[in-house]
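Supplementary Methods, section 5.1.

A reviewer requested that the exact input to the structure prediction be made available. We therefore reproduce it here, unchanged from the version used in the analyses.
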Amino acid sequence: MNINIFDYLKETANVSLTPQQLQAAQTIEGPVLLLAVPGAGKTTVMVARIANMIFHHQIDPGAILTITFSKAGAVDMRRRYEALFSSLSEKYHREIPSFSTIHAFCYRVLGSYCRLTGGTAPSLIESRDRTLILRELYGQIAGEFLTEDLEEELLSNLSFIKNAMLREEDVKEGKCIETQIKHLWEIYRQYSQIKRQNGWMDFDDMLSYTLTIFRKYPEILSHYQQTFRYLCVDEAQDTSKLQYAILYLLTRQTQNLFLVGDEDQSIYRFRGACPENLLEFPKRFPNATVLKMEENFRSTKEIVSHANRFIALNKQRFEKQMFTKNEQGSPIELKVLHDFSDQYHAAIDAYLKEPGTTAILYRNNLSAIPMVDILERNDVDFYIREHKARFKQNYVVLDVIAFFALSFDPSDFEAFSRICYKTSGRIRRSMLEQISRAPLLNGETYFDRVIDLCEENQNTGRIRYVSAMIARLRQMHPAKAMDTILHQLGYLDYLEFSSGNAYSMQAQKLGILTSLASRVSTVEQFLDRIDELDEVIAQHTQRTDSRLTLTTVHSAKGLEFDTVILLDCIDDVFPCHSAIEKYKTGQEEEMEEEARLFYVACTRAKKVLVLPYANYSGNNPALPSRFFSRLLEDPQKDSSGEADVGNIRLYPGLMIEHKNFGRGQVVGVDRKKGVFTVFFGKNGTRTLTMAILKSDTIKKAMP
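The structure derived from this sequence is encoded token-by-token as follows.
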């Protein structure tokens, strides 16, 4: 048996590999890094390479292990292999090689350890038990209740610590991990201890246990090294430091490690993904072969050329030149809007205009809420992917609900205790312990009891004002009530003070609530809609046959659609606030990750890419995402207005440098009037004439 797999593919499946793909599929021995741009057909190449190893090079299928990082990925790759080569396997009595997640492989190693030592493998901790334990620990250690969104952040932090192999000092000094979680290391330490005492483990423990076993039991490591002499790793840019340490030990003897990935698509650093694993591969393996697949078979020339130029501005990457032989396609479409909330209606309009499959992508899961609301109200069918967070359980949403609950029922002490110190009434949280819980008298409120605790010379006018305004909330239009909560009652100031770097995220939640409030007539309808939306979302997670998909950019990775509509394209949302703040101080790592995320979003589109943006968010000016200037270095004409004056082409999102006002971003262009508007940060928003571009007062700045 000596079959030319590539001739076989062409004859039976009409699949012809390009020279770059062919070279990758024919490179078998030694350490190999295959860099594959979006839409490069890497899965086809990977299964062709495996078949070439088995049917041409006579390598035992049992000696080949392919690692993926999701169960769905393993199932899909096995299905692809069987679709192309199952007839050959049957004809020549060859087994199907192993396709496994890293966690399934590690669980197998744990089984080997238990058989050798006579021990018992820990059982996977149930999510309910995990939640109960973490809530109790958080209450004891941090002195606060662990809300759902904080629990999500805590779980992410605990996973990151393990996958990044952080030490106590790394966590306590805060250099390697940023978090709202108080006393994170102590929670991590005690949680780990509780798991050990109860014979429990989580998925990350599987990895750390496997690394420990390989280091302490060389006979187990040797067994797996001899069993799997060839290791193929998909989505290698998503490997963590811990995962890579396991893979390195497995292939230390044979060095037959085939990594397939793209550091430009590494977007899971918050989970511990470490693109440096790819970047440092040639150093770790001096005899490594680095191959590239740079042809994109998915997208139009318009999308590919702009996306390639966009990502080339990142510094931590290999040099690649993505190209395509597809048609030119339609220009990338910028849709200028007045307000940030208008992006949801603009997305529906764009979807209804285009045939084929469409994805509405967003930076944060929160953006799905107003989008779902509008789609459902307009009877537009859709499918929503992997939406786990429940909107009503978010602590900001619960705070707002508490304001209204207290308005309807002044005797609701739980609502009062939740929000009283979050207003401009200058009520201290410690005062809650002194307030009598006895039934309220007729016409009395808990605010009255706070006033009774105040000293005689203390001005209580503000407390009385807060009490009166809360009482009136239930009679207001919902949008007016939201404005009252945020501004008159001071909740927005409280959030800005208490949230730190997470403020922009909290402000976005409030913006979503305000958007929902504007679509109904009464407070009762508003609260009912908040109740309904989580159920609406749950129903649409089953509509997999819909041609419209809603998903975060993270969840869209690996997918493709005829049309992509990307929401959240304003600064402080995409890119996020923390990335912008760090970038100002010369820390570029997080901004590069945000750029990779934007790149992944754009390259999901096959034919049409639509980017709505707004000049305002509520009453505040909004900056178009600075990524526009990177993506649209030579932008097509669009409804926002584009102008060429001097050596500068003006368009929203362009970063410029003014001699007097400093660095700024173009937020609007009016060619008829010959003016453009620039936001200069502390120097405010300025409207300038285009004639100034002919002087040396302004120059184009790097994004």
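The chain has 29 helices and 22 strands. These observations are discussed further in the main text.
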